[in-house]
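tool_call: predict_structure(chain=1)
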Amino acid sequence: MTRTVDELRNEIRVAVGRFERERSAPFTKEDLAAVCDAVGYEVETSGRLPPKAEMRAGILWKIGVVAEVNPEEAPSSFRKDELDAIVAAVQ
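tool_result:
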């Protein structure tokens, strides 16, 4: 049985030490920062977190989905195949 996008997001959250959401919810900045840490993409966490687009682009770059970090071309949310790749990277 294939997992839903919500199940994949929650699997990623748990793998990076965040908590599961009962309802459908996109990743928060804190969730994305934890994923960045898990895949080895460094973000400044001592002050304000960078924009979500920057973190999504960095995550996709670190897991090999895109060739370079380009926040302007980063998706507004991860597609299911990207979530599958992130799950594989953080486990």
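agent: The first helix runs from residue 5 to 15. Proceeding to next step.
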